[in-house]
Amino acid sequence: MPRKGGFMARQPDLATVIAARAGDPAAVDRLVAGYLPLVYTIVGRALEGHADVDDVVQEVMIRVLRNLGELREPESFRSWLVAITVRQVRERFRSRHSAPDELLDADLRDPGADFTDLAITRLELSGQRRETAEATRWLDEENRELLSLWWLEASGELTRDEIVDATGVGRQHAAVRIQRMKLQLETARAVVRALHRAPRCADLDALLISWDGRPGPLWRKRIARHTRECGVCASAWHDLIAAERLLAGMALVPLPPAYFTTLSGTPAAAPTASPTVTVSLPAKAGGSLAQKALAGMLAATAVAGGAALVVADRESPPPAARVAVAEPVALPASPSPAPSVSAPPSLAPSVAPSRSPSRPPSPQPSRKPSTAPPVTTGTSVKKGAAVWTFTGSKAALKDVGASWYYDWGPSDDDVPGPAGVAFVPMIWGAANVTTATLKQAAAEGDDWLLGFNEPDLAEQSNMTVEAALDAWPKLEATGMKLVSPAVAFGGDTAGGWLDRFMTGASERGLRVDAIALHWYGSDFSKAAVNQFLGYVDAVHQRYGKPIWITEFGLIDFGGSPRYPSDAQKVAFIKGATAGLEKRRFVARYAWFGLPAVGDSADFGLYKDGKTPTEAGKAYRAAG
Known about the structure:
623 residues, mainly alpha, TIM Barrel, 3 domains, six-stranded parallel beta sheet, 44% helix, globular, disordered N terminus, RNA_pol_sigma-70_dom, Asl1_glyco_hydro_catalytic
């Protein structure tokens, strides 16, 4: 199929790579000019036109040229380049997530640099190709990264092996993730169609009253759910041409004019203050010419208002010839080392709990408004909440500063969350391991899936280790990252339920990406913090995987439940969350639970969407 409107990729041959590695200035020029469109397309589509696109492209080219002399297998240059590109995109995502709110608010899209609009204009896209390009705005962050690679595979620019190398996962896992991404892309295409329908469905207009007009996962799910249930909007799913057919032969997105002036050596205008670039390259990597090329790129950015960038003589460790970029083992956390605790590493929780509900009872809402002055809200990417239906749940999730939440179910239908707060689905027990439920979880989640709920308790999911292991491959087939079944207690015990499950998973070659824990303490003294953190440390020491604490709190379940005072809860929350934030291996944590109504009034966090308890105020400040 002939390419239309785009950049005809003429990537340098092996001889050029070898010559550039040896220090040939002309070969370095050809290498930069030949591969810059590929890097720009991957970064632009993954970051969706964010103002960081130019910065990340520059970072990639600097790293490539800096380490070119150490490339051992020139024939692997493109795989190596793509892997570096993916790594830099992920680094930018992580830096965004860990930045303070005030920085994130200022770090808005450049309204003139929307990558989708640029692609539509420069590639002259129309019809379903245009719809597909617009649908990319609605994908989850991680799926946009994968889409940026798969799109190039579908258009003939990359191979599947190069995608596998760049993402750092096995070929089968990559295939499952791509399939899941394509399903999300198809859903997003239906959303785009429904929104563009003229005249638009009146029921859809009513649904969109509170929408701020920005594409995102939460509204993608809501609009998609409407299109499936609405007789008027259901046509949005009809006659969708397979994305592979639409993308076949599609060109790379042409570079912005500033990049062309860079490559020609003639900038469009002289910047007021030229940026200084000092690139330290291996002696035989063509350092002088690479410096000149990158200086031009940065000068073009300065013309557009970018700040001067100084790349000092900082040597990066030479990468392997084929770089496998692994998934981070935990979400970003404080760089501080994990503190030692006074409790022995194998300390078990102080009580064997028997409580977490399948679906906790509906509460009686309280309408009493909060009169407390505004307080600082922690915004840790680790902090979450266990939630069930109560009046004000969405507002409470936002107020408490949760980055994620779950409701023991495969979807957020019962407890929809606010924009920006990720929902994590759960497969609660054996009865939920069905094709329909797993598909629903894959469509709803943030790429993580929680395993069975307290299978070691008869009143909870009540599963044998063998039954859980037999069902696990079906969870793996979703392509999601899997969190282990959450045992009620004894997670650090040799021969316990979790230990036997992890041993069996290893023997069967099953994948478990993180460990889920529950912990409840009946000792309400200051010692509870060290008891809790000691248990977390001991479980991590046994399995060496990221830890998700999906339920924790202070409740004495012996006889009639006994609860701590407000002061005791506040002290425990402050100490426990501080310790969790310092432990890099702790990926996420969630207090049990968010509602403080009805029978959860003694341990919950919020009486309604605006009224936190004393414990709620402490948890809000955490992180």
